[in-house]
Design goal:
By secondary structure, the chain is mainly α. It contains nine helices and two strands; from the N terminus they run H-H-H-H-H-H-H-E-E-H-H. A two-stranded antiparallel sheet has the order 1-2. Helix 1 runs antiparallel to helix 3, helix 3 runs parallel beside helix 9 and helix 7 runs antiparallel to helix 8.
């Protein structure tokens, strides 16, 4: 199993920096080049690890990242309603893939994780209904899928030995412990999208928010994918689980 940081991680890091810069500066051309590289670079990571990963989990991750790539392309212009809805629909497919993998690996909702995420979802949904009704229904549906992924990723049973704070396992050398923060970062990223859409009007504040959206999204994807790879890792020729360390 390739555990060290590899070339695909370098591509991912470079694409992340370029995407964030493009989002903050409004350089759509830079985003068009860089953003579609984010999920495929992680998919390369998944495929490199496939010999030591459950085949069904590999398929779920690749499918999820393919859907994320489509969503990333649509979300290059998040201010256009049709593209926003199409992006959310693509990411809903990705969330379904992640939910399927986490559930297969034994993730279950806990009250400590579920209650604040459901409250956040309800608040964002109410804000969308009040301030952005044309997209409120599809975004509310997508938000429920995201909240489910984030809740499952925070299950402390997935990260034995990790310190837990407010229902969130803290990351350590075992990459399974990265899942909780990854799910939280994804929730934060999409929460900023809602806030940017309905609350912010100034060009500078909206540009800064877009940079925060993109940065937290990239962090979330990296932590979730690495965490799920560690979660589904097996010793070659054996059905036993092994710890995924950095």
């Amino acid at each position: 199993m390739a555990q060290a940081w590899a070339v695909e991680h370098g591509v991912f890091a470079a694409a992340t920096v370029a995407t964030v810069v493009g989002g903050v500066t409004g350089n759509e051309r830079l985003q068009q080049i860089a953003k579609p590289l984010l999920a495929p670079s992680l998919a390369v990571r998944v495929l490199r690890c496939r010999r030591d990963t459950d085949p069904a989990d590999t398929a779920l991750l690749v499918a999820g990242l393919a859907a994320a790539t489509v969503g990333d392309v649509f979300m290059i212009d998040p201010d256009e309603d049709a593209r926003l809805v199409a992006g959310a629909s693509s990411f809903a497919v990705m969330q379904a893939s992640y939910i399927g993998l986490l559930t297969r690996r034994g993730a279950r909702p806990t009250p400590a994780a579920a209650l604040p995420r459901l409250a956040s979802w309800a608040g964002a949904s109410a804000l969308l209904r009040a301030r952005s009704r044309p997209v409120s229904a599809p975004l509310t549906g997508y938000g429920l899928a995201l909240a489910t992924t984030s809740t499952l990723a925070a299950d402390p049973a997935l990260a034995p030995g990790a310190t837990e704070v407010a229902g969130l396992p803290l990351p350590n050398r075992d990459r399974r412990s990265w899942l909780g923060l990854g799910g939280f970062a994804f929730l934060l990223s999409d929460g900023i999208i809602v806030g940017r859409r309905v609350l912010l009007r100034g060009a500078r504040s909206r540009a800064a928010a877009e940079g925060a959206v993109l940065a937290t999204y990239a962090v979330a994807q990296l932590l979730l994918v690495e965490g799920m790879l560690a979660l589904s890792r097996r010793r070659r020729g054996s059905g036993s689980r092994v710890t995924g360390t950095a």
